[in-house]
Amino acid sequence: MFIPHTDAEREAMLQTIGVTLVEELFKDVPAAHRFPDLNLPPGLTEMEAMAEMQGLAGVNETVRDLVSFLGAGAYNHYIPAAVDAIIRRGEFLTAYTPYQPELSQGTLRAIFDYQSSIAALTGMEACNASHYDGATAVAEAVSMAVANFRGKRTKIVISPALHPHYRATVRTYNPGNAITLVGDSSEVDLESGPEALIPLIDAHTALVVVQYPDFFGRIFDYSALAEATHAAGALLAVAVNPMALGMLTPPGDFGADIVTGEGQPLGIPLSYGGPYLGLFATRKDYVRKMAGRLVGETVDKDGKRAYVLTLTAREQHIRREKATSNICTNQGLIALAATVYLSLLGKGGLKEVSELCYHKAHFAASQIAALPGFELWHQGPFYHEFVVRCPRPVKEINEHLLEHDVLGGYDLGQDYPELKDHMLIAVTEMNSREDIDLLVDVLAEVSDD
Amino acid sequence: MNIPKDLKYTENDEWIKVDGKIGTIGITDHAQDQLSDIVYVEIVVSEDEEISQGDSCATLESVKAAADVYAPVSGKVIAINDELPDTPEVVNSDPYGKAWMLKIELSDPSELDGLMDAAAYEASIADAE
């Protein structure tokens, strides 16, 4: 709750700093700009405002109105109604970090369960209370690797098949740090596998970053890459889609040192891009270099199980400029939603949803590949997303699909000039057989004319 | 406050014990008292590394703060205390003994002249308080 100052308190503050009126504090702002005429329309009643907002909202087309095959990092999954019902409980609805364990056992317990679930899913030993989203989690992995080598290793090998937004965020986070990013500036052929990154790894490399499944949906075995990374003394970070881990080998099993991910598929609505959830897990060896909040389990003075924030000396309010990161914000409510989602589905349920996505995507891919003019770009294993070479520009095809209330795939030419006329198609458990048939039928029309 | 007479001290509360060309380094009783319970020690230099006076050579975390340990003198690191990261509590219990952090082969012994003796260090702590 926000409690504003009283008039008496304001008066006392003004007196302390030797000012009579609040307006005097703004005297450096040119008078003409001090109280600009905002020229706003007259106020509306609540009823009028609601009607106007609903009218505006009604113009949006969402995945509720359209059949969606759009993914590229954010996926349309079913969210059980219980997720929303539970996270809206008053006890959980706080945006702030629970510093006071005596008041916050519920929230702390939820974060601890979140950390435990993500650690189990990724095959890691420790998981923090989350970052903003999948992109910032990768950027934090870069900061952590640089801090781990105390700035002595500054080269980051980054896969060109890592989400373009994640790569852009890594660059945004690190303009002041003396790091060199290699791997995604045409050094590596997009069609090649992770082996192509190995020659770029050397004694200056702090971190190698790949995605699993990668941005194009491809599934690669990263064991050899992990081995080469470790042989050079560097760390391996793997950005995951947690839904895929319902059926794939966890990255901890093939040598990842850091696992990041976009948690949105775990019960988080698409919401035009956020708020989402940045997963971040690592091995115990590196836990002191990890950014973010961490909840630990302990016992209180009566020996009863209790939860507290732990290893806080890593954080910026204690370590100041020497901290790995100056961001400790976690996505409390969103992480809670992911925790509730995972607990509702359970291990078996997650596997089931994951497999549904996989099989439906493979069915769709085989149908589309059979259409004249359409061809799968990648022949190896993939998860629930795949790249299709199209006979016409993707934009044109998507406009046609939209006329049939189908939201088409992602136009890869936006990020990869060499993939002009290539569409990235995502299929989830939300896409029925009829949806896929509709997509294939409309694409067939495109290939005909 | 325990301030052994045979050591030299820095303003950052490190001590150095010199034996010929070899200096052994740690943090003082006063420093551990200020930091309170030490829960983590990380030595951030390696053997054979050349370090300069003032370089950060270890990081300490206590229940309430994080602090760096700086090299009181320049030289080559010839030994580090490998056991310390597993027993951080000895920084509190035995700061001048078991909690030594590293040994340096001094490259410029004249740097010692700039450090404080026990009496000067005692006075500097008293001033700070």
How does this model look, in words?
The complex is a heterodimer of chains A (449) and B (129). Chain A has helices at residues 7-17, 31-34, 46-59, 81-87, 105-122, 134-148, 164-173, 223-231, 316-319, 332-369, 394-403, 433-448, and strands at residues 67-68, 126-127, 155-158, 180-182, 205-212, 235-240, 258-262, 278-282, 295-299, 305-309, 375-376, 385-389, 406-407, 410-411, 422-426. Chain A has 449 residues and is of the alpha/beta class. In chain A, helix 4 (81-87) runs antiparallel to helix 10, helix 5 (105-122) runs parallel beside helix 10 and helix 6 (134-148) crosses helix 7 (164-173). The longest helix of chain A is centred in the last third of the chain and has 38 residues, at 332-369. Chain A starts with 6 loop residues before the first helix and ends with a helix. Chain B is α+β, with helices and mostly antiparallel strands. Chain B has a single domain (12-108), classed as RNA polymerase II/Efflux pump adaptor protein, barrel-sandwich hybrid domain (OB fold (Dihydrolipoamide Acetyltransferase, E2P), Beta Barrel), CATH 2.40.50.100. Chain B is 17% helix and 35% strand. In chain B, the strands form 2 sheets. Chain B has a 6-stranded antiparallel sheet with strand order 1-2-3-9-8-5. A 3-stranded antiparallel sheet of chain B has the order 4-6-7. In chain B, strand 1 (8-9) and strand 2 form a beta hairpin. The chains are: A alpha/beta (449), B alpha+beta (129). Chains A and B meet through loops of A and strand 4 and strand 6 of B.
